[in-house]
Design brief:
Strand order of the largest sheet of chain B: 1-2
Distance between the termini of chain B: 49 Å
Shape of chain C: globular
CATH class of chain C: Mainly Alpha
Number of helices of chain B: 13
Oligomer: heterotetramer
Order of helices and strands of chain C: HHHHEEHHHHHHH
Strand order of the largest sheet of chain C: 1-2
Number of strands of chain B: 2
Largest interface: B-C, 40 and 44 residues
Order of helices and strands of chain B: HHHHHEHHHHEHHHH
Number of helices of chain C: 11
Chains: A alpha/beta, B mainly alpha, C mainly alpha, D alpha/beta
Structural class of chain C: mainly alpha
Distance between the termini of chain C: 54 Å
Strand content of chain B: under 5%
Shape of chain B: globular
Number of strands of chain C: 2
Strand content of chain C: under 5%
Structural class of chain B: mainly alpha
Radius of gyration of chain B: 19 Å
Number of domains of chain C: 1
Largest sheet of chain C: 2 strands, antiparallel
C-alpha cells in the first residue's frame, strides 16, 4: 500500500455535534479527509459513523460545529445542494428505488450531469435527446464498471444483495462526485466480492476521487484505506494510518473490550 | 348499422364521462407520481370549471378557448396550495387536502357571482365527444413525454425515496412543486371539461364524490403509470353502467363488490409496470 | 347569558358525538394506517342495529345501545378482515386500503338504504331517556347529559387503555412498526382485530347516540359524522385520544356559536378554515409530538 | 335556432295529424317511457314514491285499454342516485333507444338543469316530476308535473296569522336551497303585511342533522309563531327539537310534512302543525283520487303521498298526449300533443290545469296531523 502525500484536505469536520433526544450521537467531532485518498471510518456499533455520513450529506442539521468542503462551508445546505457540490453516498442498508431496472437506477444517479433542462427534456429537443442518450450511455458504462452490464434491464430488486450494493455504487458515481461516502460497502459480501469493491475503490481514487468509507472490518480497512479514523461513543478516538489506528490501545479497548482481552485475542491469532 | 349508431348514441356520454374522469384522474396521478397523496384536484377543477364556465357565458367563446383560462386558473391555485401543503408531512398533507375539498364547497356556495351559488350555473355549451377524446389523447402524449423525461425520472425517485433522491441532487420540493403545477393545470382543464359534459354546475358538482372518483380511478388503474389513471377512469366509469345493466336491483352493491375484488386481487392496480418486469425477470430465469 | 350557556351545552353535546366518532376514526388511522372512508357506515349501521333491537326485540335502552355498539364493532371487524387483511398480507400500501374502504362505503351505504327503506327513521318515544332536567331555568336534556358522559367515559377509558395497559403498548408498537412489534412478542393479528373492534364500537356508540338525539336513523347519519369526525381528528391529532376528544367538542361548540352569533352559511366555512389553519400552525394535532423523520 | 324551427314544424304536423287521430287510434304495441329513478341516494325516500306512483299509472292505463286494444304502456327505469352524471348517461341511453317515446326525471334542480339541454337537443319529451327551479318547462319538449308550493305557503301563513293572531314570528329556512329561500321570503312578506313582526330568522343546511342548537336559537327570540321552510328531514328535526325544548306555541310547517312516514316517525310531536297540501290520501274527495288511493294502498301496502301523486300524474299526462295520436306516434308528435293539453285528465287533485308546460292545482287545503295520525283540516273544529 503506497502512502500518498496530500496537499490539501477535501472534507473538514470542525467540532461537529449532533444529539437525538438528549443522546449525543456525535459529540464534538473534528476530522479531515485528505483529497484524493481513501479514508476508513471505523468504530463499534453505535459509535456514530453513519450519523457522520448523514450530517455530511445534509440529511440532518448540525447542532453545532462546521462542515467544509474544499474550504466552503456546506452546513445548513439542503441535501440536494450538497449533492450538487459533489458529495454523494451509498447506504448501509441498500436503498434502491423500487420498480426501477438497474439501468434506470444508475440513470437516476446521473440526474446532476444530465446536461439539459427539465423543460427541454420534456419537449424532447434534439439537444435534450442527445444529452439523454449520452447519459444513458454513461449509465451503461458505469454499470459495466461495477461488473453488471449484463443486468442493465433487470428489475434491481430481483438481484442479489451484492449486486444491489454495486448498483448503488454505480448510481452514486453517476452524479460524478468529488467525495464518495460509502456506508459499509462490503456488508454481506463474500471475500471475492469484497476484494472487487476494494479494487474499484482504488481505481476511483486513482482517477482523482476522494472516498470516505465506513467499515467494520479491520482487515478490509488495512487493505483498502490510505487513512483511518476510529470513533467511539460519538467521539474521535484516533486518526492516522490504518496500522496506527489499530495499534492504538483505546481502539483495542473500544473494539475488543479491555486491552487485556485484546491481548488474549491477539495471542489466539 | 342502426344498431351501431344507436349504441354509439347510448354510450357516447359514458365515453365522454370516462374521458373527463381520466383527465381528472391524471390530475391526481400527477402529484401521486411524485409521492404526494392529494385530493386538491377537486379544488383546481372547481376553480377552473366555474371560471371557464363564466368565460364561456360572458365572452361567448367556445370550450376550447375557455380551456386555457381554466388551465391557468388551476395552475395558479395549485401553486398557492403547494406553497402551503409542501410544508406538511405525507399523512397530514392528505388530510389537509381533504379539508380543502370540504372548504371548496363552502366557498362555491358563498361566491354566487362566480358560481351561481345554491342555484348552480347552466352552461348551454357542447363539446363533441371526438374533440374531448382528442384532448385526452394529447394529454396522454404529454404524460408520456413527462414520464420519459428527466422530470419523470426525478419524480419516480422522489416518490420511492425522497431522501435518496435528494442525496442524488434532486430537490424533492422542486419536483413536487412541478407536480402540483401539472396537477393544477390538468385539474383546471378537467373541471371545465366536466362543466361542459354536465352543462350544469351545482355546489355539489366538485365535492367529495369526485375526489373519490379521481383517487379510485388512479389506484384502480394503477398508480405507477399514467396509463393506469386512464384505464382506471374507464373502468370506474363503466362499472356503474354495467352494474345497472346486469343487476339493476343491487347496482350500487355490485359496483362496490367489483371495486373491492379488483383491489384485493390487484392491489397495485390494473396496470403495474413492476409486475410486468418481475414476470419478465422470472421468465428469463426459467428459460 | 343563559342563551349562551344553553348553546354551549348544545355545542358540547353535538361535539361529544363528533369526538366519539373521531376517536374510533383516529385509532384506525394511527394504529392500522388506514384512511377509512367506510368508517361512517359503522355509525349508521350501529344506529340501525340499536333501532332494530328496540323495535323488533323490545330490548330496554341500555341493552339496545349495547347491541348497537357491538354491531358497530363486529362490522368494523368484518370490514377489516375482508377489505384490509388481504392487502396487509400482501404488503400493499395505504392507497389500496383507501379504495377498498371506498368500496365498502358504497356497499354498506347502499345496503343501509335498503334496510331503512330509504327513510329517515327514529327511535320510538319512550324507548330512551327523554327527561328534561333544569338548572335554574336552563333546560338540561337527559340525552345531552348522557352523550357528554358517554364521551368522557370513552375518552378516559380508551386513553388509559392505550397509554397504560400492555395491550395499549402493543397497539402503539403496531402503529409504529408492525414487524418490530411481532419481534417483541406481540401478536399483531390480535392487536389489529382488537383495534378494529374498538374503533368500530366507539364510532358505533356515536352513531347510536346521534341517531337518538337527532331523530335520524338513516344511511346519511354516518356521512355527516364522517366529515366532522375527520375534522376533529385533523385538529386533535390522530395519535392521541384526548386530542381528538377535545377537538371534537371544540368543533361542536364552534359550530353552534358561529351559527347563533354569525351565520349558518358561514358555519361550515369557518369550521373548515379553522381546521386548515390549525393544520398549518400545528400540523401534528393538539398533543402530537414532532414526528420521526426517516433519513 | 335550427331546433326551434324543427319544433315548430313538428307542432304543425302534430296539429294537422290530430283530427285523424281519434279515428284510427294507436297501433297495438309496447309504448315505453324512460324513467330516470332516484330510488337510492340522499332523497330516495321521495324518489321511491314518485316511481311507485308512475308504476301504478302505467299498469292501470295498460289494463284499462284506454289507449286502444293491445296498447301497453311500460316504464323503462334507470337509476341515477340523484347524480347528474349518471342521469345524463341514463338519458342518452333512453334517447338512443328508439322504442322510448317520452322520458321523466328529476327531483333535484341540478339534475334537471343537466338533462334539459340534452332533451331539447334531441327533441325527446321530458316530464319533470319533482324539481322546482323556475323556468324549467319548455313546451313542446319539457313539462313539469311538480306542484309548485310557493302560493300555497303564502295562503297557509296568512291563514295561520288570521287564526292565531301572533304578534311576533320567527322563521327557519334551508339556507342552501333557493326554492325554500324564495318560499320563506314570500311567506315572511305575507306575514309581515298582516302586521306580524319578524324577530328572527334561523338558517339550517339541508345536510344538517342536529337541530337542538337552532331550536334553542329560535326559542331565544321568544316568537309567538315559528314558520318552517326547510326540506323534510330538517323540518322533522326542527319541530321535534322545538317541542322537546318546551316550545308550545304555533309552528307552521310546509308540504314536506304530508307523507304518512312523517307521522309514523314523529308521532304526536308533529300534531297540530299546519301545512298546505295539494294531495292527501286521507282527504281524497274525487272518485279519481279515491280510486288512486285504493289501488296504490293495495299495491304498495302504504297510502300514497304528494310525491306518489305527482309521479302518477306524469304518466297520466303522457298517456293523455298519446291518446290523441294515431298509428305510430313519434317523439315530436307526442311532444306537440302534450303542448295542446290545457288540463290534465284524469287527475287526483280535483283539477290540474297546464300553464306553459307547468301543472298547477287550484285550491289550497290547509291541514295538520291529529294526535292519532290522521290528516284533518286545520284548525280542527272549524
Amino acid at each position: 500500500m503506497t502512502m500518498r502525500t496530500e496537499s490539501r484536505t477535501l472534507l473538514e469536520l470542525d467540532a461537529v455535534r449532533k444529539s437525538f433526544g438528549g443522546v449525543a450521537a456525535v459529540a464534538s467531532l473534528s476530522l479531515g479527509v485528505p483529497a484524493g485518498s481513501v479514508m476508513g471510518l471505523m468504530g463499534p456499533n453505535g459509535a456514530g459513523k453513519t450519523t457522520v455520513i448523514n450530517l455530511v450529506t445534509g440529511m440532518f442539521p448540525l447542532d453545532a460545529g462546521c462542515i467544509r468542503l474544499a474550504g466552503d462551508d456546506i452546513q445548513g445546505l439542503p441535501a440536494h445542494r450538497i449533492a450538487a457540490r459533489g458529495i454523494v453516498r451509498t447506504y448501509q442498508n441498500v436503498r434502491l428505488f423500487s420498480g426501477m431496472t438497474a439501468l434506470e437506477q444508475v440513470l437516476a444517479g446521473c440526474f446532476l450531469r444530465r446536461g439539459t433542462s427539465l423543460f427541454a427534456s420534456f419537449l424532447g429537443t434534439p439537444a435534450a435527446r442527445a444529452a439523454q442518450a449520452r447519459a444513458t450511455e454513461h449509465a451503461r458504462h458505469l454499470l459495466a464498471r461495477v461488473g453488471l452490464a449484463h443486468r442493465a434491464d433487470v428489475l434491481a430488486e430481483t438481484l442479489s444483495y451484492g449486486e444491489q450494493r454495486r448498483i448503488e455504487i454505480a448510481r452514486a458515481l453517476g452524479a460524478a462526485p468529488r467525495l464518495l461516502l460509502l456506508d459499509e460497502p462490503t456488508a454481506g459480501m463474500n471475500a471475492q466480492e469484497s476484494a472487487a469493491i476494494g479494487r474499484l475503490v482504488h481505481e476511483l481514487r486513482d482517477a482523482g476521487l476522494t472516498v470516505l468509507m465506513v467499515e467494520h472490518n479491520v482487515r478490509l480497512v488495512t487493505e483498502f484505506c490510505d487513512h483511518a479514523a476510529v470513533m467511539s461513543f460519538g467521539r474521535l478516538l484516533v486518526a492516522g494510518t490504518p496500522a496506527e489506528c489499530i495499534a492504538h490501545p483505546d481502539v483495542q479497548t473500544a473494539y475488543f473490550g479491555h486491552s487485556a482481552d485484546a491481548e488474549r485475542i491477539r495471542a489466539l491469532r | 348499422m342502426d344498431w351501431l349508431s344507436d349504441t354509439w348514441a347510448a354510450y357516447q356520454s359514458t365515453l365522454g364521462f370516462a374521458a373527463v374522469n381520466a383527465v381528472l384522474a391524471l390530475s391526481t396521478y400527477a402529484v401521486l407520481s411524485a409521492g404526494v397523496l392529494s385530493f386538491a384536484s377537486v379544488s383546481y377543477a372547481a376553480f377552473g370549471g366555474f371560471l371557464g364556465a363564466q368565460v364561456m357565458l360572458h365572452a361567448g367563446i367556445g370550450p376550447l378557448l375557455a380551456l386555457p383560462a381554466a388551465i391557468l386558473a388551476g395552475g395558479v391555485l395549485s401553486f398557492l396550495v403547494a406553497l402551503i401543503f409542501l410544508r406538511l408531512e405525507g399523512h397530514w398533507m392528505a388530510l389537509a387536502s381533504l379539508a380543502l375539498v370540504l372548504i371548496t364547497r363552502v366557498v362555491v356556495l358563498n361566491a354566487p357571482a362566480l358560481t351561481g351559488g345554491v342555484n348552480g350555473l347552466s352552461i348551454p355549451v357542447e363539446l363533441p365527444i371526438g374533440v374531448l377524446i382528442l384532448l385526452l389523447l394529447l394529454l396522454m402524449l404529454i404524460f408520456q413525454r413527462l414520464a420519459v423525461s428527466w422530470y419523470g425520472i426525478a419524480a419516480r425517485a422522489v416518490r420511492e425515496d425522497p431522501a435518496v433522491a435528494a442525496s442524488l441532487g434532486m430537490s424533492p420540493r422542486r419536483v413536487q412543486m412541478i407536480a402540483f403545477l401539472i396537477s393544477g393545470a390538468v385539474g383546471g382543464a378537467g373541471g371545465v371539461l366536466l362543466a361542459v359534459m354536465l352543462q350544469f354546475l351545482s355546489p355539489d358538482t366538485y365535492f367529495v364524490n369526485i375526489a373519490f372518483t379521481m383517487i379510485a380511478s388512479v389506484v384502480l388503474g394503477g398508480s405507477y403509470h399514467w396509463a393506469g389513471a386512464v384505464a382506471g377512469a374507464a373502468v370506474f366509469t363503466a362499472l356503474p353502467v354495467i352494474a345497472q345493466a346486469v343487476v339493476p336491483a343491487m347496482q350500487d352493491v355490485a359496483n362496490g363488490v367489483a371495486l373491492l375484488l379488483i383491489m384485493i386481487f390487484l392491489p397495485r392496480g390494473l396496470i403495474d409496470p413492476r409486475a410486468w418486469r418481475r414476470r419478465r425477470a422470472a421468465r428469463r430465469r426459467n428459460a | 347569558m343563559e342563551l349562551f350557556a344553553e348553546q354551549v351545552l348544545n355545542g358540547c353535546a353535538l361535539g361529544a358525538l363528533y369526538a366519539l366518532f373521531a376517536i374510533g376514526f383516529g385509532l384506525v388511522f394511527a394504529t392500522l394506517g388506514i384512511l377509512n372512508a367506510a368508517h361512517g357506515t359503522y355509525a349508521s349501521w350501529a344506529a340501525i342495529a340499536a333501532l332494530a333491537a328496540t323495535e323488533r326485540l323490545g330490548l330496554p335502552f341500555p341493552l339496545a345501545v349495547l347491541a348497537g355498539v357491538v354491531a358497530g364493532g363486529l362490522l368494523a371487524l368484518f370490514v377489516d378482515q375482508v377489505a384490509f387483511q388481504p392487502l396487509r398480507a400482501r404488503g400493499a400500501g395505504m392507497l389500496a386500503a383507501l379504495i377498498t374502504s371506498i368500496a365498502f362505503w358504497i356497499i354498506l351505504d347502499s345496503l343501509a338504504g335498503f334496510a331503512t327503506g330509504q327513510q329517515s327513521l327514529s327511535f320510538p318515544q319512550g324507548s330512551y331517556p327523554a327527561r328534561m332536567y333544569h338548572l335554574g331555568t336552563m333546560p338540561l336534556p337527559a340525552m345531552q347529559l348522557l352523550t357528554i358522559a358517554a364521551m368522557l367515559v370513552a375518552t378516559f377509558g380508551i386513553h388509559l387503555l392505550v397509554r397504560r395497559s400492555r395491550f395499549g403498548a402493543a397497539m402503539r408498537a403496531v402503529g409504529w412498526n408492525g414487524a418490530a412489534a411481532a419481534l417483541g412478542g406481540v401478536n399483531p393479528r390480535m392487536v389489529v382485530l382488537a383495534t378494529a373492534f374498538l374503533a368500530g364500537a366507539t364510532s358505533g356508540l356515536a352513531g347510536v347516540l346521534a341517531g337518538i338525539s337527532t331523530q335520524n336513523v338513516s344511511f346519511s347519519l354516518g356521512e355527516g359524522l364522517l366529515l366532522k369526525g375527520f375534522a376533529a381528528v385533523v385538529v386533535g391529532g390522530y395519535d392521541d385520544v384526548r386530542g381528538a376528544a377535545i377537538a371534537g367538542v371544540a368543533l361542536g361548540i364552534a359550530e353552534v356559536i358561529t351559527a347563533q352569533y354569525l351565520s349558518t352559511s358561514l358555519r361550515d366555512g369557518i369550521t373548515y378554515a379553522l381546521l386548515l389553519g390549525f393544520l398549518l400552525v400545528r400540523p401534528r394535532g393538539l398533543f402530537g409530538r414532532a414526528g420521526f423523520v426517516r433519513a | 335556432m335550427r331546433i326551434c324551427w324543427r319544433m315548430a314544424a313538428a307542432l304543425l304536423i302534430g296539429g294537422a295529424a290530430m283530427p285523424a287521430a281519434h279515428a284510427d287510434g294507436l297501433a297495438a304495441g309496447d309504448y315505453r317511457i324512460g324513467f330516470v329513478t332516484e330510488n337510492t341516494g340522499p332523497i330516495a325516500f321521495a324518489g321511491l314514491s314518485y316511481y311507485h306512483g308512475a308504476q301504478l299509472a302505467a299498469e292501470e292505463i295498460t289494463a284499462s285499454g284506454r289507449l286502444g286494444a293491445g296498447v301497453k304502456l311500460t316504464l323503462a327505469d334507470k337509476e341515477s342516485g340523484s347524480d347528474p352524471a349518471r342521469a345524463i348517461q341514463d338519458m342518452h341511453q333512453f334517447i338512443a333507444d328508439r322504442s322510448i317515446l317520452a322520458t321523466s326525471c328529476c327531483i333535484l334542480s341540478a339534475v334537471a338543469g343537466s338533462l334539459k339541454p340534452i332533451v331539447l337537443g334531441a327533441g325527446m319529451p321530458l316530464v319533470i316530476f319533482g324539481a322546482t327551479a323556475p323556468g324549467l318547462p319548455k313546451p313542446p319538449v319539457v313539462y313539469s308535473m311538480t306542484i309548485l308550493p310557493g302560493p300555497k305557503d303564502v295562503a297557509t301563513a296568512q291563514h295561520a296569522v288570521e287564526v292565531m293572531h301572533p304578534k311576533t314570528a320567527a322563521y327557519f329556512v334551508s339556507a342552501d336551497n333557493d326554492a325554500f329561500k324564495a318560499r320563506m321570503a314570500a311567506g315572511q312578506h305575507a306575514v309581515e303585511a298582516a302586521g306580524v313582526k319578524t324577530v328572527g330568522v334561523v338558517s339550517v343546511l339541508s345536510s344538517d342533522t342536529d337541530f337542538t342548537a337552532p331550536a334553542t336559537q329560535a326559542i331565544g327570540y321568544a316568537p309567538d309563531m315559528i314558520l318552517v321552510y326547510t326540506t323534510q328531514t330538517p323540518a322533522e328535526g326542527i319541530i321535534a327539537a322545538l317541542r322537546a325544548r318546551g316550545y308550545a306555541k304555533t309552528i307552521v310547517g310546509n308540504d314536506v310534512l304530508s307523507p304518512a312516514t312523517v307521522f309514523k316517525k314523529m308521532g304526536a310531536t308533529v300534531a297540530d302543525v299546519p301545512f298546505p297540501i295539494s294531495f292527501s290520501a286521507a282527504l281524497a274527495a274525487t272518485p279519481e283520487a279515491k280510486a288512486f288511493v285504493a289501488a296504490y294502498t293495495k299495491k304498495f301496502d302504504a297510502p300514497p303521498d304528494i310525491y306518489s301523486a305527482q309521479g302518477y300524474q306524469v304518466v297520466q299526462f303522457i298517456a293523455q298526449g298519446l291518446h290523441v295520436l294515431s298509428g305510430k306516434p313519434t317523439r315530436e308528435s307526442l311532444g306537440a300533443a302534450l303542448a295542446q293539453i290545457k288540463s290534465v285528465e284524469p287527475n287526483v287533485y280535483g283539477g290540474e290545469p297546464m300553464v306553459d308546460g307547468q301543472a298547477e292545482t287550484k285550491d289550497t287545503v290547509i291541514v295538520a296531523w291529529t294526535k292519532d295520525g290522521a290528516i284533518a283540516p286545520w284548525p280542527s273544529g272549524k
